[in-house]
């Protein structure tokens, strides 16, 4: 008899999990708070090999490779734009996958939305869960429209500021790391065939990642500021002011920074739920359980791996009890902790101006972990 699962949150982790659970024959309701399913949110995303491996399992890899921009190298430039080094990438997904794919985040979201729709899952938009009534064999859920439904399992995939996390009494909250990032979608500058990063100058990092044949996203990382002091109408001007002295691809990028509504400003946060990731039959995945700065570009990959591991464990066990959900967290915790800690440490070294930091050592240790099984 198929079991019933409620997935709260229709982002990368929730969408992927929904497709995987439907493939295993479960009856899945996906509930997303945003009426538009976040179909147009974000500028760009960097997907490394371990993320691509999960997307292949979900069945959308061909679409991602077609609509994104696969590459294998990373370019390091000085603030004037001179190439200092081109480092070969490492594919954590296997030799048959590119090391990295850059793509427009709205396009990835639409690919996953289409996969959810095709899976036959029930989708309810503009809705949230407001309460859980836990039982040994399931969860009664009350929704914001006053309706109630019972499920065998509820999965909170509702992001960094997860309401599910709060509702089940997990008190961990995101903590700012001291950095912030400006992002904007732009036309792909000439000669940008892989991510190009500049360290130093007006910002800690000035980067550009191709997201398609004609598109890219540009980003600038600086010390965080009080967001209340920055009017959204000035976002393009703020990003231009920070970018004005950079060379390389940045003169072309600057020409495209004209619309403040296309510029996003976000603080970096750290989150890692140290205790159990579940209460009863409600369990967390993705940013609801852990989140880190994008200094390693592993946020989406960690969330996708959560979904894959949880789906595997649910498929392998006839009884969905505390032991299964505890095993899920045990499979994930050390790997996620390594990524979260390394991502934060890389940023902290920049904040502290440490010039002799053991970046190669930290990267090597982190890559060794990522090369293993999720």
Description of the structure:
34% of the residues lie in helices and 30% in strands. By secondary structure, the protein is of the alpha+beta class. The protein folds into two domains: 4-71 and 103-174 and 269-370, FAD/NAD(P)-binding domain, CATH 3.50.50; 177-268, D-Amino Acid Oxidase, Chain A, domain 2. Helix 2 (49-58) crosses helix 8. The longest helix has 31 residues, at 322-352.
Produce a short descriptive summary.
The protein is built from 10 helices and 20 strands. By secondary structure, the chain is an alpha+beta fold.
Largest sheet, spatial ordering of strands: 6-5-14-15-16-13-17-20
- Please compute the radius of gyration using only Cα atoms: 21 Å
Instruction: State the low-pLDDT regions, or none.
Output: none
How many domains in all? 2
Give the CATH topology of the largest domain. Answer: FAD/NAD(P)-binding domain
Rough outline: globular
List the helices and strands and how they pair.
Blueprint: E1 4-8, H1 12-23, E2 27-32, E3 44-48, H2 49-58, H3 61-67, E4 69-71, E5 73-77, E6 83-88, E7 100-104, H4 105-119, E8 122-125, E9 129-135, E10 138-143, E11 148-151, E12 153-156, H5 163-167, E13 175-187, E14 195-200, E15 203-210, E16 215-223, H6 235-243, H7 250-256, E17 264-272, E18 278-279, E19 282-284, E20 290-291, H8 299-316, H9 322-352, H10 359-370
Parallel strand pairs: 1-2, 1-12, 2-8, 5-14, 12-19
Antiparallel strand pairs: 3-7, 4-7, 5-6, 9-10, 10-11, 13-16, 13-17, 14-15, 15-16, 17-20, 18-19
């Amino acid at each position: 008899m198929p079991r019933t699962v409620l997935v709260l949150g229709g982002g990368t982790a929730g969408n992927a999990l929904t497709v995987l659970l439907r493939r295993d024959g479960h009856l899945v309701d996906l509930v997303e708070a945003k009426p538009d399913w976040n179909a147009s949110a974000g500028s760009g995303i960097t997907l490394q090999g371990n993320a691509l491996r999960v997307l292949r399992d979900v069945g959308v890899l061909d679409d991602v490779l077609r609509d994104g921009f696969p590459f294998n190298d990373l370019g390091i430039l000085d603030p004037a734009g001179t190439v200092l080094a081109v480092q070969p990438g490492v594919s954590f997904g296997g030799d048959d996958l590119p090391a990295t794919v850059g793509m427009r985040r709205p396009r990835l979201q639409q690919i996953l939305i289409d996969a959810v729709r095709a899976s036959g899952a029930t989708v309810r938009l503009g809705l949230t869960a407001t309460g859980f009534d836990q039982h040994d064999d399931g969860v009664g859920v009350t929704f914001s429209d006053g309706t109630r439904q019972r499920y065998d399992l509820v999965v909170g995939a509702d992001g960094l500021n997860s309401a599910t996390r709060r509702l089940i009494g997990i008190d961990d909250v995101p903590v700012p790391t001291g950095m912030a990032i400006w992002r904007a979608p732009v036309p792909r500058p000439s000669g940008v065939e892989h991510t190009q990063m500049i360290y130093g100058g007006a910002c800690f990092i000035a980067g550009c990642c191709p997201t398609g044949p004609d598109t890219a996203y540009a980003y600038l990382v600086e010390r965080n500021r009080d967001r209340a002091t920055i009017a959204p109408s000035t976002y393009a001007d703020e990003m231009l002011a920070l970018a004005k002295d950079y060379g390389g691809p940045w003169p072309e990028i600057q020409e495209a920074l004209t619309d403040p509504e296309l510029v996003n400003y976000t603080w970096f946060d750290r989150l890692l739920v140290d205790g159990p990731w579940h209460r009863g039959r409600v369990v967390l995945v993705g940013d609801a359980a852990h989140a880190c700065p994008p200094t390693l570009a592993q946020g989406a990959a960690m969330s996708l791996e959560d979904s894959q591991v949880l789906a595997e464990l649910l498929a392998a066990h006839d009884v969905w009890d505390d032991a299964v959900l505890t095993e899920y967290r045990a499979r994930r915790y050390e790997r996620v902790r390594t990524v979260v800690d390394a991502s934060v440490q890389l940023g902290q070294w920049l904040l502290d101006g440490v010039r002799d930091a053991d970046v190669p050592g930290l990267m090597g240790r982190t890559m060794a972990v990522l090369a293993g099984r999720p």
